Amino acid sequence: MTSRPSVVLQPSVSTTTVVTTTTTTTTYAPIQLPPLPSPIEPTDPKEYPLLHATLPSNLRQFPLVFPGGTRATFKEGDDENDEDRESRGEGWRMLRRDDPPEPVVGLAEAVDRYGKKRAWEEEPQSRKKPRPPPSPPGSRQGSPFEPDLALTTLLTLPSLLSHFSALPPSLQSHFLLTLLRHSPLPVLRTLHSVLTPTLARDFLTLLPPELASHILSFLPFSALARASRVSKSWRSLIDADPLVWTSLLKSSGMHWGSEAAFLHAHRRLTYPHKSLFQSRYLTQARWSSSTAPTHRSFPAHGSSVVTCLVLSRGRVISASDDHSIHVYDPLAGELRLALQGHEGGVWALAATRDILVSGSTDRTVRIWDLVSGRCTHVFGGHTSTVRCLAIVQPEWVEMEDGRREKWPKRALIVTGSRDHTLRVWTLPRSGDAGYSCFDEGDPDDTDDNPYHRLFLEGHDHAVRALAARGRTLVSGSYDCTVRVWDLVTGACRWVLVGHTQKVYSVVLDPPRHQACSGSMDGTVRIWDLRTGRCAHTLTGHTSLVGLLGLSPRTLVSAAADSTLRVWDPDSGALLHTLAAHTGAITCFQHDEFKVLSGSDGTLKMWNLRDGSVQRDLLTGITGVWQVVFEGRWCVAASNQTRGGTVQTVLDVWDFAEEGEDWVGEPPGGVYDESDSGASEDEEEEDADRGSYAYTRRMDVDMVVEEDDDDDVQEQADVDAMDQDLLVPPSEDGSGSERGKDVIDVDEPMSDDGETEGVRSSRWAPPPPPPRAGSSRHHQQQQQQQQQQQSGSGSSGTRSRRTPASTTSAPPLSPAQPEASTSTSTSTAAGTTAGWRRSAANANEEAPTTRTRTQRRGSRR
Question: Repeat WD: residue ranges (predicted)?
Answer without folding.
Answer: 339-378, 408-427, 456-487, 496-537, 538-577
